[in-house]
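Sequence only, no structure available. Ideas?
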Amino acid sequence: MSRTRTVWPIKGGALLLAAVALLALAGCSGKQEKADNPGGAIIRSSQDPNGLRGATLDQPYSMPATTLTDTGGNPFNLVTSTKKPVTLVFFGYTNCPDVCPTVMADVASALTKLDQPTRDQIQMLFITTDPSRDTGPVIRKYLDRFDPSFTGLTGSLTSIKDVAKAVGVPVEGMQKLPSGGYEVGHGAQVIGFGKNDKANVIWLSNAAIGDLAHDFGKLVADNQ
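Reply:
I predicted one. Tokens follow.
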């Protein structure tokens, strides 16, 4: 299928300590290969001084003030409608055969490891990369398999691609299958935003559930 690929060069001072790290993100194929850095993200290879276990960014992403549509058909602005201290963002689609459900299940599992007051400070956004098939009810049914509190968003493909580009997530679009259907290539990272609408950490699709839980809790503590 169509695949997205990302290179993660090592951050600042760590560049003298190790070679450039090449980590591939498969859209939904589950395959990995050498990459050409379409997302432009920068990752540390050494432990983050702030104690995060995910990939920290030299230059934080800013949340775009774009209005999409939630699964109830209501406008949802990515800045003004995100009221909680921590917002997690993932781009995917409901027909994704492997990577998307794995990432969503891992996030949901990590959240169950947090105490409820901490969990209540986190909002999870799932933004579809396949708006032609992913209607509101379709997304809602899909997300309810993982966590009913997850927010699903859709919109025009142009708007979705613009948002994805702003936060370093490549979206390749559709590739037809012999069966007559199609698959959608996209980056598989989860992005963590704080209450200032800035993100300085992402988690790759193979992040350990324990690491996700640790970082989610730390983000909440850091954004109170």
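The mean pLDDT is 80.
Hope that gets you unstuck.
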